[in-house]
Amino acid sequence: MKYINEKKIEKLDINSNNLVIVIDFDRTITAKTSMDSWDASGLLLGKEFKEKLEKLYIKYRPIELDYEISEDEKTKKMEEWYKSCMDLYEEYNLSVSKLEESVEKSRLVFRKGAKEFLNNAIKKDIPVIILSAGIGNVIEMFLKKNDCLGKNFEIISNFLQFDDLGNIKPFDGELIHTTNKNLNKKHKNKIEEELEKRKYRILIGDMIEDEKMVPKEDWNRTIKVAFLNAKIEENVELYKKSFDIVLTNENANFDELKEIFPAI
User: Fold this and answer.
1) Domain ranges of the chain
2) Mean pLDDT of each 10-residue bin along the chain, 264 residues long
3) What is the pLDDT of residue 188?
């Protein structure tokens, strides 16, 4: 199933020279059935670690997908979840070598057409901002491994820090999570020049909150795309109110986007 706001797409004269792509990673660039970057980070940390990470997922994931609770309450719970996950990596002594091997062995899988989509952005020199509440180290390693990380790419995510011996350091930055993932002033400074030079944006995500990756004042020059992965019948009308394109089931792939936007 797909929903397309054709009037808006026709109104915006989008091409590869006037565009910035702002895109999520987990369950957007990767398939909805793919391992996520949090799991991939701890693949070699043992059974007990995996069980504890899974318990956190079971506890907090339903809250992440709940659009009935307040944003303040969800934000509080997301901060709890992400901080608990970061603490687990430290507790089970994640190292650079273990992380690299984990990514190599991980079951991270591209969504259909995603690798080609990213490579096309590299060839056409379209700036790509990967804005993710996942683990930035994993995203960077995975894309490098698959030869689809361009010089025109910027990754804004949760980067694990390690000491000179390759051992993990306590995370002391601001965690990027579901409800605060956006190009705020702090993040925007990194890529402000490209954002200002190019008139339009294509935003691609899988959560309702992903529409906020681009500031609201820019929505009139942004095509917002969602891959609706879960609770489709329950959430499709809500997604249609927030996004200009909603893709589900067999249509939820980057080949479909290429048909909608042949110029890119």
Assistant:
1) 2-32+109-260
2) 93 93 97 96 95 96 92 95 96 96 96 97 94 97 96 94 95 90 68 77 96 93 95 93 96 94 86
3) 56
Let me know how long the chain is. Answer: 264
CA 28/CA 252 separation, integer angstroms: 9
| Residue whose token pair is 């930055």 | 173
Rounded distance between C-alpha atoms, residue 110 and residue 116, angstroms: 10
Phi-psi region of 249 (alpha: psi -120 to 50; beta: other; left: phi over 0): left
Question: Tell me, what's the pLDDT at 178?
Answer: 92
Q: pTM to 2 decimals?
A: 0.94
Amino acid, res. 163: D
Q: Which fold has domain 2-32+109-260?
A: Rossmann fold (3.40.50)
From the list 102, 108, 103, the residue with the least C-alpha distance to 34 is 108
* Residues sharing a CB contact under 8 Å with residue 27, sequence separation 6 or more, in sequence order: 34, 36, 206, 227, 229
DSSP E strands in the chain: the ranges are: 2-4, 19-23, 128-135, 153-158, 200-205, 222-227, 245-247
